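Re: the 324-residue chain
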Amino acid sequence: MSSIRPFCLTSWLAVPVAAALLLLTPVSQSRAQAQAAQATPAPAQAANPAPASPSQTTVAATSPEQRGITARAIDKVKQVAKSAGDVFNRVPCLPPKGGAKAMGSLPHVAGKLVAGKPVVIVAFGSSSTAGYGAIPNRLAAQLRRQYPTADITVINAGVGGEDAPEMMKRLQKEVIDVHPDMVIWQVGTNAVLRNLDPGDTAKMVEDGIARIQAAGGADIVLVDPQYSPAVNQRKESAGKMVKLLGKVAELRHVGIFPRFEVMRDWHENQSIPVESFVIADGLHMNDWGYACFAQLLGDDIIRSVGQIKLGVNVPGDVRAYRPM
């Protein structure tokens, strides 16, 4: 998600057991470092590469003929989930203490999960979305463990090195035309690294959110830039980007996952060394960083489903402020 062209792997996983095994297997930090080192920097004005086809992960099937397979898959997932938890043995994945996190309600996707209807989630962004070990696969694995019989599809629509100008060109085909129930939009880091105007980025994101909402009212969660050495070198721009994306979320009544603040809390309040969650390129998260990030994001989705079950449904046009 920088001018260092990060890797972008896509895969189609169909068999439930295979999906569970693949999604829960962490990508090694050394492998991520090697890929980042081999990437070729791309000039800010270079022609955009052709977007990769979104990868799709079908988390579960609920047809009668699949029940037997699903039941066996659940047992296998439990075994794999136990070993997958080893990634947190180095450092436990804890949410920030104190403060407040603005997270809009997710009534659309939560309502569908409660009703047992199929759910489609699109993860839209750059390299932290595109990579195998990044957000979509780990989030799918967590939701698969929580809702083992649900029909959940997570579509990876990440392209490394992009930001709002390139993403807006893909928005119709790779997000709106898919008719998602939820869109997780990770944006802003490459704009900071490319010295783009944070105000211009925020305006494009606001326009994109308006288009998604007009097309069908999917739940939307923005993910702001990461706290890392490469981003922090442009501290002023990064601060403006984080602030403006938060304002856009509030104005458009959508959720925001404050990745920058979460990662800063890891370092400043939990005393976790930066190298424990960022790889050697000073930008991309490592296995632990992606896993903890996805865990906290997934917890928010699961919590929203719980609220629906309890009848505590915050309307989509109302902001919910709660401790993280």
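Residues 287-309 form the longest helix (23 residues).
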